[in-house]
Design a protein that fits this description.
It is built from 4 helices and 6 strands. It is of the alpha+beta class and 152 residues long. Strand 5 and strand 6 (144-151) form a beta hairpin.
Length: 152
């Protein structure tokens, strides 16, 4: 083999290795774990949908829909309030609709709220200078979700 062939093989192995590392690094659960320590995998808390912004190794933000226990959403409210040292705000459905008109312009994921239920909203700055908005909604009589909007 020529030196050129060996160099190309080494380069190919390095590129494939970087790609594999990037895919592992950029998994939904790994991204959330790096930016917001949520108890994923416990008590039915799991990522349902996620939209990422930016490049694999340099994410500028994401929007995530995470299922939480419908019977006890207050456990997640308390967890997030303790995590960010901020209680957030419980909004009536009408207040929330006005909030949506201002905030969700251009967002990919907008929560759907069950008629007659309240919505919990919390916004906070995090250590890396990013902003995170957490919204807990009941979408129907059996499903509750935490929507996370993280922007660096």
């Amino acid at each position: 083999m020529t030196k050129k062939t060996v160099a190309l093989i080494i380069l190919l192995v390095a590129v494939v290795g970087a790609l594999i590392a990037g895919l592992i690094y950029d998994r939904d659960e790994a991204l959330i774990a790096r930016t917001q320590p949520l108890p994923l995998g416990q008590d039915g808390i799991e990522v349902v949908e996620m939209h990422k912004h930016g490049f694999i190794f340099h994410r500028s933000g994401y929007e995530a829909k995470i299922s939480i226990p419908h019977d006890h959403p207050e456990d997640m409210v308390q967890y997030l309030a303790d995590l960010y040292q901020f209680d957030g705000e419980l909004m009536l459905n009408a207040q929330y609709q006005m909030f949506c008109e201002e905030v969700f312009d251009g967002s990919m994921m907008e929560p759907v709220v069950e008629e007659g239920t309240n919505v919990w909203v919390q916004g906070a700055g995090v250590e890396d200078g990013a902003n995170v908005v957490n919204i807990i909604v009941s979408e129907d009589s059996t499903h509750a979700y935490l929507y996370v909007y993280y922007h660096a």
